[in-house]
Design a protein that fits this description.
The complex is a heterodimer.
Chain A (H helix, E strand, L loop, with lengths): L1 H26 L11 H24 L6 H6 L6 H6 L5 H22 L5 H25 L23 H28 L5 H33 L9 H26 L3 H24 L12 H25 L14 H33 L6 H22 L10 H7 L1 H17 L5 H16 L14 H26 L1 E7 L4 E4 L2 E12 L3 E12 L5 E3 L2 E6 L2 E6 L1 E5 L2 E10 L5 E9 L3 H28 L12
Antiparallel strand pairs in A: 1-10, 2-3, 3-4, 4-5, 4-6, 6-7, 8-9, 9-10
Chain B lengths: L1 H6 L1 H18 L19 E4 L7 E2 L9 E6 L4 H15 L3 E7 L3 H11 L5 E5 L3 H5 L7 E5 L5 E6 L7 H7 L5
Parallel strand pairs in B: 3-4, 4-5
Antiparallel strand pairs in B: 1-2, 1-5, 3-6, 6-7
The chains are: A alpha+beta, B alpha/beta.
Organism (chain A): Novosphingobium aquae
Membrane topology (chain A): Multi-pass membrane protein
Keywords (chain A): Cell inner membrane, Cell membrane, Cytochrome c-type biogenesis, Lyase, Membrane, Transmembrane, Transmembrane helix
Chain lengths: 646, 176
């Protein structure tokens, strides 16, 4: 019964989306304004039913109802509770349901809280949101019904071993919240084009939504990177896998958007560009979803898929993205150009930042899709891989960092280069000291890591400069947020450069009681034992590790051998120190007594994720600052339609 | 008017992309192309050993009268993992298989082979990707069959799959 109720809730939600779309479209016509009244309530009710449907699917998983096909195919009655719940979205249908649920929730949030926007633009925005939701409801109901029944199954097939990790509980929902949150920016842009309202007010209304989605995206990517780092056992933190790239591309577009929307809000410039980026950010999210869900590219993220579904999603994408771009082409020429600015000004720095972000985006997009394009021309599946991406994106990222150091210290509209250099004096000094230190103590670390560390020092100091001579308590929260996010970039880049430059790696074949060295640590293999896990056989190596002549401690990396499906996964043993991580992996048994051990000493690698967290926190502070100011000026954000000014 | 045309560029690019996606979805299978390399002598290359304990690969190794398979791969290449079991089956059936690892390093290669298995008799390391260019290879993985006199008789772009096995078995004189 629960499954049928869930399906019914999904149908009602779809009907509400239709109502919301029709109400919005009619409401924009002359003489039919009354229809507009239905739109906001429909959005809220739609979200309620989508949420209900999603919770009912979770309930089906929790009860291990094996008469539901999805549960039988992806769950198992003996699975721990957390994986039963998380397993709900560890598969194609469930994750698509999560996707539309978040979409409808963001629509409802706009309906409830967005009062700054002009009424007709808000109406068009909600109608656009409904149009997107409707397509994905259709996809769920007609091509991916999560509640389909099956008979005669006694127990489930289980969940992919790689997904049986607490990471599954958090990584997809945060990432999806980010992906789908971008739909708000997309709908805002469509709404603004339809009602010809591209203005600073519009930008101010849109900004918190972009910030919110961007924060989730940042957290999702950071968490995903760490998850891959510790479960895949390759010691890497980013693999340029198509699906990783699919999450990076919307983030790049959203980061550019975040900065251009500020120019629009503050200086009324970059109107067309901001609209373009809004469309692009969500388009990249949908392309990401398509790449994951269609199985068109070979990736560690692919679930079992059939091409029919791929064609369905592709058709939806063509309608939404193609429609938005066509609307852009037709309407944007009627958008009056915004204010102009000098070559040396904060606007100019933001424009260059936008261009560089776009270049990285194009590089990542090209590298991800090149195999696909080649395949459609020649029919072969290939991969361009990390060397291409690192060589192309690395240098641009370093250039961007230098700009990031200068940008916040520039004045709006016009500035003098001399003054900027003055303001950056301390930061330049820090970068010079870093360069000298590295030149003396760390020769031969490679050009890119060297530049990365120097740029990180530059940005690390320069990012704090906006706080110079300011009382911390009287600094606006969004300025603090910006400072923290930029500092996060420096921290993260320092981590990446340290990982590339100073990682010590050792791969040896070891017998019991043999000792090997990695970085400052010596690792002794005490023995290897087999222990049965709940649904796998574990081979664990007991290692005794010590630094110099200090106290030894034990680390126990494991190799999990699953039989159904047959698969081996690594459980790396990781120990975190203040200055880095020791990462140990046990590999195959070569001849009975020898075991392949792979060990890394990764100085300061944790900075990569710490930086990501700082960036997200900075975003959160900014958002808080914006909302606080809105509440300040409007007293009560969901009260009377009072125009807010930031 | 010109400005208006420029505004349609994003739409055009997006349309082109979707057409490529659509073709990609519709034609998943056909991995065989008429190659310019087929019938040509194997390009000159001499790659140092990729891992200690196994010889490197060079053009001269392909003239011993026995047909050999040359697999261009890399440890960072995700699809390459997929075809290793196929290559191992070919090897177990008696085929001679050599590898050329591009843009790679010895530790990465060792880990890759330890993880996925090692079907290769010789492994050359082409760290700068020079040999790959000589082969006119567009990416990894790619597979060539050389006839024993140093002439290429078959080129396969992309992952070797189940369907390609009978043909490869026959060309390499292997018995399944």
């Amino acid at each position: 019964m629960i499954a049928e109720a869930g399906l019914a809730a999904l149908w009602i939600a779809a009907a509400m989306a239709l109502l919301q779309l029709l109400g919005g479209a009619l409401g924009l016509m002359k003489g039919r304004e009354a229809a507009a009244a239905i739109v906001a309530p429909a959005a809220i009710v739609q979200a309620g039913f989508a949420l209900l449907s999603f919770f009912l699917l979770i309930a089906v998983f929790v009860r291990s109802d094996m008469s539901v096909l999805l549960v039988a195919a992806n769950s198992h009655s003996m699975k721990p509770m957390i994986y039963k719940v998380a397993g709900t979205w560890g598969n194609h249908e469930g994750s698509m349901l999560l996707w539309v649920t978040i979409l409808s929730l963001s629509g409802a949030t706009i309906a409830l809280f967005e009062k700054k926007l002009r009424a007709d633009t808000r109406l068009a925005t909600l109608a656009a949101q409904a149009a997107i939701a409707l397509g994905f409801y259709a996809f769920l109901l007609f091509a991916s019904n999560p509640f389909a029944r099956i008979t005669g199954v006694l127990d489930g097939a289980g969940l992919n071993p790689l997904l049986q990790d607490p990471g599954l509980a958090f990584h997809p929902p945060t990432l999806y919240a980010g992906y789908v949150g971008m739909s708000a920016a997309f709908s805002f842009a469509v709404g603004a084009l339809v009602t010809r309202n591209v203005s600073p007010d519009f930008a101010r209304a849109m900004r918190p939504w972009i910030l919110g989605a961007w924060i989730f995206l940042t957290i999702g990517i950071t968490a995903g990177s760490y998850w891959a780092y510790y479960t895949l056992g390759w010691g890497g933190w980013w693999f340029w896998d198509p699906v990783e790239n699919a999450s990076l591309m919307p983030w790049l577009a959203a980061t550019a958007l975040l900065h251009s929307v500020t120019v629009l809000a503050t200086r009324d410039g970059l109107r067309a560009w901001t609209i373009m980026l809004s469309v692009l950010a969500f388009s990249m999210s949908m392309v990401g979803t398509f790449l994951v869900r269609s199985g068109i590219l070979t990736s560690v993220h692919s679930f079992a898929v059939d091409p029919e579904r791929g064609v369905f999603i592709l058709a939806l994408l063509a309608i939404y993205i193609g429609g938005a771009l066509a609307l852009f082409a037709m309407r944007v020429s009627t958008v009056v150009e915004g204010n102009r600015f000098d070559m040396v000004s904060r606007e100019a720095a933001l424009v260059i930042n936008n261009l560089l972000l776009s270049v990285i985006l194009v590089v990542v997009l090209a590298g991800t899709l090149y195999p696909l394009i080649l395949e459609s021309l020649t029919g072969g599946k290939i991969s361009v891989g990390a060397p291409f991406f690192n060589a192309m994106a690395g240098p641009i990222a370093v250039i961007m960092m230098v700009l990031l150091a200068a940008g916040p210290l520039l004045r709006w509209r016009s500035d003098r280069p001399r003054m900027v250099l003055d303001r950056m004096a301390v930061a330049i000094l820090a970068a010079a000291i870093m360069l000298l230190t590295l030149a003396v103590f760390a020769r031969g670390i490679g050009l890119l890591p060297l530049l990365g560390l120097v740029a990180a020092a530059l940005v690390g100091v320069a990012s704090l400069a906006p706080l110079w001579k300011r009382k911390l308590t009287r600094t606006p929260l969004f300025t603090l947020g910006m400072v923290m996010a930029h500092l996060g970039c420096a921290v993260s880049m320092a981590g990446m450069a340290c990982d590339a430059a100073f990682t010590a790696e050792n791969m040896v074949s070891m017998k019991a009681n043999e000792t090997s060295q990695v970085g400052p640590y010596s690792v002794t293999l005490l023995g290897v034992r087999e222990t049965p896990g709940p649904n796998y056989q574990a081979l664990e190596a007991v290692l005794s590790v010590r630094k110099g002549t200090g106290e030894p401690w034990q680390m126990v990396p494991q190799l999990h051998q699953f039989t159904d499906p047959p698969m081996t996964t690594n459980q790396a043993a990781i120990k975190t120190f203040w200055n880095g991580q020791l990462y140990l992996v046990v590999g195959e048994n070569t001849d009975g007594t020898n075991f392949v051990m792979r060990m890394w000493w990764k100085p300061f690698v944790t900075l990569i994720w710490l930086g990501g967290i700082l960036i997200a926190l900075g975003g959160a502070l900014s958002l808080l600052g914006r909302l606080q100011r809105d509440i300040w000026s409007a007293r009560w954000p969901w009260g009377a339609d009072k125009e807010a000014t930031a | 008017m010109k400005r208006k045309l420029i505004l349609w560029v994003p739409f055009g690019l997006c349309a082109a992309l979707f057409i490529a996606f659509f073709i990609g979805l519709k034609n998943p299978a056909d991995h065989v192309i008429a190659s310019k390399m087929v019938g040509q002598p194997l390009p000159e290359f001499d790659a140092a050993p990729g891992i200690p304990g196994q010889p490197g690969a060079a053009t001269r190794d392909f003239k011993d009268g026995k047909p050999r398979l040359l697999n261009i791969f890399a440890s960072w290449c995700v699809p390459c993992v997929q075809e290793i079991p196929m290559l191992i089956r070919l090897k177990d059936a008696g085929a001679e298989i050599d590898g050329l690892a591009v843009h790679d390093t010895t530790p990465d290669l060792q880990a890759f082979l330890a993880r996925n298995g090692n079907p290769y008799t010789r492994i050359g390391l082409d760290s700068a990707g020079k040999a790959q260019i000589a082969f006119g290879s567009a990416g990894v993985p790619e597979t060539f069959v050389v006839d024993g006199q140093g002439k290429i008789i078959y080129q396969h772009i992309g992952v070797v799959t189940e369907e390609d096995m009978p043909k490869l078995m026959a060309m390499l004189g292997a018995r399944p």
